[in-house]
Design a protein that fits this description.
Blueprint lengths: L3 H5 L1 H7 L1 H15 L6 E4 L2 E4 L21 E3 L18 H6 L42 E4 L6 E9 L11 E11 L2 E3 L3 E2 L6 E2 L3 E5 L8 E5 L6 E3 L10 E4 L4 E2 L5 E2 L3 E3 L3 E10 L2 E4 L4 E4 L11 E5 L10 E11 L2 E2 L3 E2 L8 E6 L10 E3 L11 E6 L9 E2 L3 E2 L2 E11 L3
Antiparallel strand pairs: 1-2, 1-3, 4-19, 5-17, 5-20, 6-17, 7-16, 8-15, 9-14, 10-11, 10-13, 12-26, 18-19, 20-29, 21-29, 22-28, 23-27, 24-25, 24-26
């Protein structure tokens, strides 16, 4: 490192550095064998040397000053005339290693008749002007805060994430939005079973237009004649039937099956250990650099949902598992209502259903004085069952949250 005195106050430095200047002159004599009478300009000050080679830049490091100096000749020396000289320097070794690092340490010096003895050495691990090599072979990262785990390297992306190798895997999970199309097959109902139609009941009135006193009779089976025998105070004057009894049918439900694609996340997440590989200056930890495909940041992590500390302010929430509750509601079928029709014929000529008949439609009053009747069943329809259900329910819920926080790149 350059002596501050060189740059801030050249005259003052010259006055207090006379001994060092003499060291330079004497050492130069030993190395280069230049003649007596050389004069050098040093920091704006002319110095006369007994033996000097003022252009030897390699030895200038002994003075502690950075700027170059120049030599001039032709004047008698007035300083250092009677001094013997002997010096050893590592300048040659430093030059062979590619340049000078920092100033060496003078092993000792004796100026006078006994001569100058000493050594100067330069560390092979130094770099630049008086510098020291960086002891961290990786990345210097902030200290892991209390309650957090790490440091780790984090991969968060479409994947594949790769392998942690010898560093060791810490967490393998997922991140981002959840995907997976899902649907329920439509509900359906089978053919009805158990549906049937009964026989209608006919009402007879003693007055026209189906009013007054009445009595009822049920017809016999289809196409079977039935003589009318009712309990009325007077003769039958009108007739009507209103409905045909029936039994509803039941159906077997089908469908409502879940059709779901596998659950996927936007991103795959992988955390790998980052080993300590050296030391850093200050309150930092030296760790190995993250793999090329990983986030180029040093990260920490903690189970659960948390806010990130200031030194690791970039958050990457990930999940280690999920629960899949997707399902379809059960299918069901309503009962079917059958179609029951037919024709009622009444005979006014007397019993046993002879001669022509008068047709009576359902719900319609017919003025007649019948003596017998016959029921003719119509086409039967079992009806259909209406399906219900088959609705999608549930969903996919991420579980095992881990908060990953990373430093600036």
């Amino acid at each position: 490192m350059v002596d501050p005195g060189c740059a801030s106050n050249a005259p003052a430095y010259a006055r207090r550095s006379t001994k060092r200047e003499r060291l330079l002159c004497t050492a130069t004599n030993v190395v280069a064998g230049r003649r007596k009478g050389t004069r050098m300009h040093f920091r704006g000050r002319s110095i006369s040397c007994g033996w000097a080679l003022c252009s030897a830049a390699a030895l200038f490091a002994a003075t502690g000053c950075g700027p170059p100096f120049e030599a001039c000749e032709g004047a008698a020396c007035s300083e250092g005339e009677g001094e013997g000289a002997g010096a050893a320097t590592s300048a040659s070794a430093a030059a062979a290693s590619g340049g000078l690092g920092g100033a060496g340490a003078a092993g000792g010096a004796a100026v006078g008749n006994g001569g100058l003895g000493g050594t100067s050495s330069i560390s092979s691990s130094s770099s630049g002007s008086g510098g020291q090599s960086d002891p961290c072979a990786g990345v210097c990262a902030p200290v892991v805060p209390a309650g957090w785990d790490g440091p780790v390297a984090a991969f968060v992306g479409p994947g594949p994430a790769g392998d942690c190798g010898a560093a060791g895997e810490v967490v393998h999970g997922n991140a981002g939005d959840i995907h997976g199309d899902v649907a329920c097959t439509p509900c359906s109902c089978g053919s009805p079973s158990g549906a049937s139609c009964g026989l209608p009941t006919v009402t007879f009135y003693n007055n026209p237009n189906c009013v007054g006193e009445s009595d009822t009779l049920q017809v016999n089976g289809s196409l079977t004649c039935k003589n009318i025998d009712v309990d009325l105070t007077d003769y039958v004057a009108s007739v009507k039937y209103t409905s045909v009894p029936s039994a509803q049918g039941t159906c077997q439900p089908g469908g409502g099956a879940l059709q779901a694609e596998p659950v996927t996340f936007d991103d795959e997440a992988l955390l790998c250990n980052l080993p300590v590989v050296g030391e850093c200056q200050g309150a930092e930890t030296c760790v190995g650099a993250p793999p090329a495909s990983f986030e180029q940041r040093v990260c920490i992590y903690q189970q659960g949902d948390h806010g990130c500390p200031a030194a690791y302010r970039h958050a990457f929430p990930i999940y280690t598992s999920f629960s899949d509750t997707r399902d379809c509601t059960s299918c069901a079928c309503a009962k079917s209502t059958p179609t029951c029709g037919g024709t009622l014929g009444v005979y006014t000529s007397g019993s046993n259903c002879i001669n022509s008949a008068t047709t009576v439609a359902k719900g319609v009053c017919v003025n007649a004085t019948p003596g017998s009747m016959r029921w003719t069943a119509g086409a039967f329809g079992a009806g259909t069952c209406a399906p219900s259900g088959g609705a999608l329910q549930g969903g996919v819920i991420p579980e095992g949250p881990i908060t990953v926080c990373c430093s600036d790149p």
